[in-house]
Design a protein that fits this description.
Layout (H helix, E strand, L loop, with lengths): L2 H16 L6 H8 L3 H7 L3 H26 L5 H18 L1 H8 L2 H6 L3 H28 L7 H20 L9 H12 L6 H5 L1
Helix pairs in contact: 1-2, 1-4, 1-6, 4-8, 5-8, 5-9, 5-10, 8-9, 9-10
């Protein structure tokens, strides 16, 4: 692994576990074997390093979802929403450190004074919501999802899914144990209730 990539990976773990303020460049230097001067050669400051991690996370998320949708076919938009929910949950476990970083207060505190940090955070969350919105729009076209403002509906669905991930992150609830219930709630919110009398009873 190249030194810059190692610094990013190690720093992401430290920021996730300890927070922005408590992470020291001296510890990062010790864990990576890179002199502090080398770290600051690649990243101008601690803030710059933190922002670079968010930018890297944004790219990783886009790549992961693009690969997932390339490898999977969905009969309906509703199926695609369920697939996105499932993959988001699995991605949060695969990238546990990065999601913990997103769930800390630090990024949002920094975003108040750092416009680039704010932009990356907005891009990350817009990326997630865009994925759900795309699936909902497809469902509205094929009749599997009820017609409602797609963006607002995507925000609501994403908020539920991300909320469950946050519970899991802080060991409050087991996200896997609530997966079926989450899918059932999503179906109730999204399903086109004009299709059959049975649907109207759900």
């Amino acid at each position: 692994m190249k030194k810059k990539a190692l610094i990013l990976q190690t720093a992401a773990a430290l920021f996730s576990q300890k927070g922005f303020r408590e992470t020291s460049m001296a510890e990062l230097s010790r864990l990576t074997g890179a002199a502090e001067g080398t770290i600051f050669y690649h990243f101008k400051s601690k803030e710059d390093l933190f922002v670079a991690i968010l930018e890297d996370l944004k790219k990783s998320i886009v790549q992961e979802f693009e690969e997932y949708f390339r490898q999977n076919q969905f009969k309906t938009g509703l199926d695609m929403v369920e697939g996105a929910v499932s993959f988001y949950l699995s991605l949060s476990m695969k990238m546990e450190d990065r999601f913990l970083l997103l769930h800390r207060h630090d990024p949002y505190e920094l975003a108040q004074s750092n416009s680039l940090c704010r932009r990356h955070l907005e891009d990350i969350y817009n990326c997630f919501v865009d994925i759900f919105e795309k699936a909902i729009l497809r469902g509205q076209e094929d009749g599997s999802v009820d017609h409602a403002p797609a963006r607002k509906t995507a925000l609501i669905v994403f908020s539920m899914v991300d909320g469950l991930v946050r519970f899991n992150t802080y060991s409050l609830y087991d996200a896997a144990a609530l997966y079926k219930d989450l899918i059932d709630v999503c179906r109730r919110i999204l399903r086109n209730h004009q299709k059959t009398p049975e649907d109207r009873l759900c």
